[in-house]
Amino acid sequence: MGQVAVVTGGGGGIGGAIATALAARGDRVVVADLDFAAAARVADAIGGLAVEMDVRDHDSVRGAVGKAVGELGPIGVLVHAAGVVGGAGPLLTLPLDAFDAVLAVNVRGTFLVTQAVGEVMADAGRGGSIVHISSAGSFQPTVGLGHYEASKAALNALTRSAALELAPHGIRVNAVAPGPVETPLTAGVLADPAVRAPWVARIPLRRIATTDDLAPLVLLLASDQAAHVTGTVLPVDGGQLLGS
């Protein structure tokens, strides 16, 4: 049997696709999401375990991780895909509540989940792999998305510091940084040519990524084939950052 793999945001488009890919390679997958119904739908489809997790809340994270370990055993892989964009708005008029909401999920949530799973992995003494989902926006600014991009830049910093601190335990920590991705959540917005065209124009390969573009890279970083890779934030952006 494969490893126990926890996927946060597993009820969503990116998280669900990664959970499905992990299950297909034989891992026992824990689908964690604030929306338990969404998590349960994915878990039922792949034969996984659904848990409710609010990544902003210490007790919720610890409870969900404890349930995963109690039912399936030591965790070998964490894919932290939970995150929010929080809308868009220029710096001068962005509501403070919107800024705080994005930081709570994308930064506080990353810290809490990485800490909780990192402790479990370290205590088990078997090593492990943690993969965060970042964004190409953490390297390249977009007007109106500064709050989101700042949160993902912080996630990158947490990825690198965690890689240093967890390396003595044999735990690798990496991230992938996609540009825009076709998911059910983005489908409505990207269906508008006025929105889609400027994004495609920034990408040399001239197409928006799909979850099929991300999942193989996440699985690679979560596998022994990447046994000597840690502290890396890997762009999966169709060349978008070449124009930065």
TrEMBL record:
One of its GO terms (molecular function) is quinone binding. The keyword Oxidoreductase applies. InterPro entries: KR_dom, NAD(P)-bd_dom_sf, SDR_fam. This is NAD(P)-dependent dehydrogenase (Short-subunit alcohol dehydrogenase family). CDD domains: SDR_c (cd05233). Keywords: Oxidoreductase. Residues 3-179 form the Ketoreductase domain. Pfam families: adh_short_C2 (PF13561). SUPFAM superfamilies: NAD(P)-binding Rossmann-fold domains (SSF51735). GO terms for biological process: fatty acid biosynthetic process. Belongs to the short-chain dehydrogenases/reductases (SDR) family.
